[in-house]
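Record filed below.
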Amino acid sequence: MQIVILAAGNGKRMGQLTKKVPKPMLKIKGKPLLEHKINALPKEIDEVILVIGYQGGQIMNYFKKSFGGRKIQYFFQKELNGTGGALYLVKSVLDERFLVMMGDDLYHKRDVRKIMKYELAVLAHAVDDPGNFGVLKANRKGYLVDIVERPKNSKNNLVNAALYSLTREFFEYEPVSIGQGEFGLPQTLVKMTDKHKVKVEKATLWHPIGFPEDLEKAEKIIHKFF
């Protein structure tokens, strides 16, 4: 099975840490963040498609054409036109089913397996500050209804952890513009709910890394993700 890892961002919020290094290559316990992510993938995932950008050559030089017994492909996202734009970039090489995850978040192997059970699914996690994320709205049966980005005073704290199981039917939908020349993967996924059931699966563990303090915390909790 294939997984697409979106790793093209410039990591500006990390300050000096990403001045010369792409965020996925920042070290946790002596290894790049991206290496931890790839090592934690279930064995059923035998191909990794990396969408790279800022300092992407460092990623290519480290992981080469295969890593840990998995085939690695690279696509360079010249224009940072959002997660939707990144996924359309790799459309030509995708199988009927595939997974997508962010290059700077830590996911538990168990959660990747749970997502794999569904043709269409999104991982969700409860947080203390839902106003900083995309809040997921699901119906009583646990299927996606909507995603509200950065809501104010939300009583719902279940947010999008940005791990997806998708099919090529995703590309039958026009990517949704989210402004500033970007297209959103989650917003396009919401469009699919007009004809498809998208399962909202709750995460065991999730740790997004956006700021230096998140990287410091990752050092302390990385062992919990394997």
